[in-house]
């Protein structure tokens, strides 16, 4: 195509770009793949994170409809149903409907599913919620049975019922009781909308009360005020609550869930941003392959008199077109990742929130990810535009050392190194002065990693040059000579080499920083749960893994007597636990028996003396608070705090400050007797069982199961329960590992693809070296030295700054979120990660390297000099 007949207008710009694609399609494909990878990672994580709270919001709206206020119990046993009539009689109340909610397990055909059992009455549909309204169709809730959402029915393998077929029999375990019942209906999205993907199992209020043994009790009242009367209704509800019940908005559940997921969302968001950075560098690498040709093209246009605006229009259109197509591909890939790899409900949340996640794609997330991909493409394609600056000679690229457009002078390297050091200082100050912004500081370290690569590579090339000259004794064709050639080749392609090294550096940085903190967090959680379980040989609980925090109560009177009579049992101690909504978080409350060896997990103590704190808790009227809760209450050691409990506000003395004990929003530890008084309930959530000296664990366990004679109660050894906690901790953080793995794979593939494309682009150079007498084996050795220098530099820079990022991430986990995460440098894991990226990239580039090293000498002769 002649430059003098460049097309004009949008249609002609498209035609011109299509002709360019026919000539440069491999580079455009690589660049588009890089952008698509970055968009996919970010989009998948944003969709996954938003799906958690989005699903919860849909459940709330589907049930509550027009209701805007709730009166809720602070304990699991609820409050007197007569309170509902007092609420309905308040001035300004249009409608009020009670609910009874309990965690339960349903079983059918050998399969089990954890659910939220919810009892409703005939007033709930009046709020207009789509799900609540349709539950009344056909009188479903009037029948003695359970209505299952499609998701739970699928987990239990219950098929869609046909006319005339008997209703399936199911078993429901709730509050330590097992009851045989029927599934009166399986309802899908057509009937209850998004609640078909939830874990809500619905029954009539009287039937739910009978199943749970909570006759005459409810746990929540939803209230719809008359227009303009909300404040009046809230004041009336506060009077009814009298400090014993919670008054708030119906959307408070979503707000508390957002607080609980906040730390993990921030961490996964940071890692996704690092993954996007890898994708951007991938695209930048591919674009660099075309920079010499595009800079010559810009120079030619300037010689022909094209205005700068016209040149920007041509290059800008190409970048936007590539970015749009790549971003669309990234959105599709990200949606697939969100539906598969990142789709599981984090089980650590189901202890306290009745959530069932379905993939929700907010329009704002789509727009942000798409726009980000287009902008990233424009940035990656912007280098040739630098030649349009005023005062720049038309042939500026031809005057640079090495390949055109590849030079980066010492002054620029020093400037970038200075900026990198400044970013490290900024990240450090943020972590020290504003701990809540530590993850932003980690992002600054990621940027510093990239900016430090030029100086690191220059040092590596200088060391390589020295090593090569010392190896010259092997002769002009020896290893030193090949290393010297490799060093010179890299200096001739500085920008491309830096982009490759930076890709590896930022991926290694992310893996070392996040996976290091992840490893420390898992270690801390393991120690926490080992201390938490210490002191009992057997545990009796209700439910399954969904009750790992031991918050589901059961009637323990008769069971306690039978357990204590089992041969081989030395002692049985009732344990109590539950969830308590404070102003900004849902806290885990632990009521430990005073006879326990330690009421506070010894490895989790942050402030205070362990023996003294245990003594204060055993004496009563004292608590140990997680640091996050103590900070939110403005309390320190020895201070008095008022906690809202089912019996009204209770004052406790702070005996110790601890970590969050593995529950993000934080924990409160007290003695069991204080818990029973404050919660006005003797129902335990577990039994701690000590065995007599010499008693066989397996034999005593079997005898205990037979004595309890209740299949809804579960007997576990301490070792089994500890393994359950360990599996839970790893599952709760699985998304971090998934994203880390995806980012590393993306980085290895990005570097291999870019290096492979760069190698193929040098076929003429290698054929000319064949003319000079270089054998294919020596050419492959040159490529091996080049790849090792590039990848080694990137891995080293990423590992060093990643270790510092690991330290900052640990500080964030400990100081900001309160998680137990003692710092320990994971050196073997860091080395393994670097070797993995290095070996995978070298293995993938060996094929193009082998092919190009065998390029016939005629190719160099045919292309001329």
Automatic annotation (TrEMBL):
Residue span(s) of domain MacB-like periplasmic core: 520-706
Domain of life: Bacteria
Biological process, per Gene Ontology: lipoprotein localization to outer membrane
Transmembrane segments: 29-47, 269-291, 312-337, 357-382, 416-434, 440-463, 498-517, 739-761, 782-803, 823-844
Keywords: Cell membrane, Membrane, Transmembrane, Transmembrane helix
Membrane as UniProt keyword: yes
Name of the protein in question: Putative ABC transport system permease protein
UniProt topology in membrane: Multi-pass membrane protein
């Amino acid at each position: 195509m002649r430059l003098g007949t460049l097309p004009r207008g949008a249609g002609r710009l498209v035609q011109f770009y299509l002709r360019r694609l026919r000539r440069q399609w491999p580079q455009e494909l690589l660049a588009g793949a890089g952008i698509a990878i970055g968009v996919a990672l970010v989009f998948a994580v944003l969709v996954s994170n938003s799906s958690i709270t989005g699903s919860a919001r849909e459940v709330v709206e589907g049930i509550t409809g027009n209701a805007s206020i709730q009166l809720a119990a602070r304990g699991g046993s609820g409050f007197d149903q007569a309170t509902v009539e007092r609420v309905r009689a308040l001035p300004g109340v249009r409608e009020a409907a009670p609910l009874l909610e309990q965690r339960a397990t349903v079983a059918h055909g050998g399969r089990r599913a954890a659910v939220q059992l919810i009892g409703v009455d005939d007033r709930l549909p009046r709020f207009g919620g789509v799900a609540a309204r349709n539950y009344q169709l056909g009188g479903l809730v009037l029948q003695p049975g359970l209505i299952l959402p499609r998701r739970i029915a699928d987990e239990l393998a219950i098929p869609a019922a046909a006319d005339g077929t008997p209703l399936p029999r199911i078993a429901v375990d709730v509050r330590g009781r097992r009851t045989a019942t029927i599934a009166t209906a399986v309802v899908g999205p057509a009937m209850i909308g998004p609640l078909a993907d939830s874990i809500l199992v619905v029954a009539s209020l009287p039937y739910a009360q009978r199943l749970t043994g909570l006759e005459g009790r409810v746990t929540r009242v939803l209230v719809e005020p008359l227009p303009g009367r909300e404040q009046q209704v809230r004041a009336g509800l506060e009077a009814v609550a009298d400090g014993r019940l919670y008054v708030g908005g119906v959307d408070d559940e979503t707000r508390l869930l957002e607080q609980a997921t906040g730390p993990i969302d921030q961490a996964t968001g940071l890692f996704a941003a690092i993954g996007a950075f890898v994708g951007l560098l991938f695209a930048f690498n591919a674009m660099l392959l075309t920079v010499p040709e595009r800079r010559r093209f810009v120079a030619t246009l300037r010689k022909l008199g094209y205005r700068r605006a016209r040149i920007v229009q041509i290059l800008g259109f190409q970048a936007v077109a590539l970015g749009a197509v790549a971003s669309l591909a990234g959105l599709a890939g990200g949606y697939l990742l969100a539906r598969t790899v990142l789709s599981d409900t984090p089980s650590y949340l189901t202890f306290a929130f009745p959530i069932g996640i379905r993939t929700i794609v907010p329009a704002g997330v789509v727009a942000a990810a798409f726009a980000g991909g287009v902008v990233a493409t424009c940035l990656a394609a912007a280098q040739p535009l630098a030649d349009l600056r005023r005062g720049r000679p038309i042939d500026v690229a031809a005057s640079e050392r090495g390949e055109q457009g590849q030079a980066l002078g010492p002054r620029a390297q020093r400037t970038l190194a200075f900026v990198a050091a400044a970013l490290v200082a900024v990240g450090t100050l943020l972590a020290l002065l504003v701990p809540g912004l530590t993850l932003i500081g980690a992002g600054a370290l990621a940027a510093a990693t990239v900016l430090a690569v030029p100086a690191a590579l220059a040092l590596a090339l200088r060391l390589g040059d020295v090593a090569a000259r010392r190896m010259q004794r092997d002769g002009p064709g020896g290893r030193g000579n090949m290393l010297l050639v490799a060093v010179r080749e890299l200096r001739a392609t500085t920008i491309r080499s830096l982009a490759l090294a930076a890709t590896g550096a930022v991926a290694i940085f992310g893996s070392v920083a996040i996976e290091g903190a992840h490893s420390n967090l898992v270690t801390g959680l393991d120690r926490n749960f080992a201390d938490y379980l210490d002191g009992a040989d057997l545990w009796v609980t209700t439910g399954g893994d969904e009750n790992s925090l031991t918050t589901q109560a059961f009637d323990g009177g008769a069971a306690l007597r039978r357990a204590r009579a089992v041969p081989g049992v030395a002692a049985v101690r009732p344990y109590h636990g539950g969830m308590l909504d404070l102003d900004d978080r849902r806290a885990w409350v632990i009521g430990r028996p005073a006879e326990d060896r330690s009421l506070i997990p010894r490895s989790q103590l942050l402030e205070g003396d362990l023996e003294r704190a245990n003594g204060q808790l055993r004496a009563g009227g004292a608590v140990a608070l997680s640091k996050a809760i103590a900070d939110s209450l403005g309390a320190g050691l020895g201070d008095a705090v008022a906690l809202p409990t089912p019996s009204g506000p209770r004052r406790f003395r702070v005996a110790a400050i601890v970590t969050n004990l593995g529950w993000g929003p934080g924990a409160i530890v007290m003695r069991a007797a204080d818990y029973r008084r404050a919660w006005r309930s003797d129902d335990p959530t577990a039994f701690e069982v000590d065995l007599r000296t010499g008693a066989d664990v397996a034999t005593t366990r079997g005898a205990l199961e037979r004595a309890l004679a209740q299949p809804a109660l579960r007997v576990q050894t301490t070792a089994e329960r500890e393994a359950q906690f360990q599996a839970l901790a790893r599952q709760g953080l699985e998304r971090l590992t998934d994203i880390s793995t995806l980012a590393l794979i993306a980085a290895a593939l990005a570097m291999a693809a870019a290096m492979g494309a760069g190698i193929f682009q040098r076929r003429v150079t290698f054929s000319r070296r064949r003319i000079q007498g270089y054998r294919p084996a020596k050419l492959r050795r040159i490529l091996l030295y080049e790849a090792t220098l590039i990848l080694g530099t990137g891995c080293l820079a990423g590992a060093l700054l990643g270790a510092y990022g690991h330290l900052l991430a640990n500080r964030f986990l400990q100081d900001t979120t309160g998680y137990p995460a003692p710092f320990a440098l994971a050196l073997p894991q860091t080395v393994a990660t670097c070797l993995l990226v290095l070996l995978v990239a070298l293995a993938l580039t060996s094929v193009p390297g082998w092919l190009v090293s065998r390029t016939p000498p005629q190719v160099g002769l045919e292309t001329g000099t």
